[in-house]
């Protein structure tokens, strides 16, 4: 029997990213430059247009703000899609 693999997504904690940016005095553009994450992605996460991102993106953003990912994001386990052999 195969074990289904799990993956994770990161959800921004409500308003945490916006508050952290203000506290650090950084703009989306400055954080994007420091992290390699696009300004659009950062803006979408900060204003709620995007509700999730990869754990890697969350870690980059948190590192750019000098914070732990858990201060800004909540990791959620998601199940990988079943293969045909698992569904049968």
Please, could you describe this protein's structure?
It holds the Pfam family HTH_26. This is Helix-turn-helix transcriptional regulator. Residues 24-72 form the HTH cro/C1-type domain. GO terms for molecular function: DNA binding. The structure is a single chain. The protein has helices at residues 16-24, 28-35, 39-47, 55-64, 69-72, 84-87, and strands at residues 6-12, 73-79. By secondary structure, the protein is of the alpha+beta class. It has one domain: 434 Repressor (Amino-terminal Domain). The protein has a two-stranded antiparallel sheet.
Q: Which helices and strands appear, and what pairs or packs with what?
A:
Layout: E1 6-12, H1 16-24, H2 28-35, H3 39-47, H4 55-64, H5 69-72, E2 73-79, H6 84-87
Antiparallel strand pairs: 1-2
Helix pairs in contact: 2-3, 2-4
Looking at CATH, the homologous superfamily is lambda repressor-like DNA-binding domains
How many E-type strands? 2
- In N-to-C order, the SSE pattern is EHHHHHEH
Envelope shape: globular
Per CATH, what is the topology? 434 Repressor (Amino-terminal Domain)
Largest sheet: number of strands, sense, barrel closure = 2 strands, antiparallel
CATH uppermost class: Mainly Alpha
Oligomer category: single chain
Q: Mean pLDDT, nearest integer? A: 89
CATH architecture: Orthogonal Bundle
| Beta strand % | 15-25%
Counting DSSP H or I runs of 4 or more residues, the number of helices is 6
InterPro entries: Cro/C1-type_HTH, Lambda_DNA-bd_dom_sf
Protein name: Helix-turn-helix transcriptional regulator
Pfam families: HTH_26
GO molecular function, one term: DNA binding
